[in-house]
Amino acid sequence: METISLKELSEQIRQQSLPLQELRRRMEISIIGQEDLIHKMLISILANGHLLLEGVPGLGKTLTIKTLAQLIRSAFARIQFTPDLLPGDIVGTPIFQPKDGTFIVKKGPIFANFVLADEINRAPAKTQSALLEAMQERQITIGDETFLLDEPFFVLATQNPIEQEGTYPLPEAQVDRFLMKLKVTYPNKKAELDILELYANNSASAQIPKSFLEPNDILIAQQTMRQIYLDPKLKDYIIEIIFASRFPQDHNLAKLKPLIAYGASPRATLFLAQASKGSAFLDGRGYATPEDIRFVATDILRHRILLTYEAEAENVTPEDIINEIFETISVP
To answer: What is the pTM assigned to this prediction?
Structure first.
């Protein structure tokens, strides 16, 4: 494989990032006050990962992924998770044909490029696990047949932090499949006023954006992003952050040891490197920086650091742990 200089790579990245920057700009026209959500969503797609959102209803989560699918001219599916939802309702099921005595497969809504799993914690673990093969392997097995999913494939799952009655906690193995977990907050006053001005006349349908990208454009961007340079010092920095969450006593963080039950998994190491490259790509750079790592680290680690009962009793959050790690681990 022919190698290119960092200067040539940076120019290539700058050119190929322009459509993604335009995609981000167009999304921010329709989704007001959620710039961080849009930015992190595009990073997740570039890193070929999935996104878990936690936030109250009405913050634009559904509109965001639907707008994304419209701009990229791709298939979109919304799955409303409920206690009576079955795995077959997600992935599909074999249907018997009496005429010839055979089965045909009716594919479920998971066969789309962008899938919204709305209120995912309202379904029991058996149903939630139907997503695991799709999220990790990019394939679905129905009966004795296996179907590859179209690329790009992106799952955005939401959960409501307010209502806990009738909900089921996500299995740790499933949570770890999500590249990031974002906490979606309310927009500020100015953004709320802009939302009112934009949608007050009930012309939401007029705000539907026109497609200008193809799914293949995303696949090319993903492939190019992998070439972004990650300095060995930054790789060591990522390793130090991850290991500090597992063995805090070895990183001058002995006070955190009673608070952490389990640290971040190796998947967090890989995702942190990929997401930092995604951040650099959106900025049009051919190299990642410590700022890229810190920009995505909290969202990658908050659902992978499990706390002890002592931490919960003291109202310590994963974000508190991550901030302590950031303050202690030296930046290269």
So the answer is: 0.90
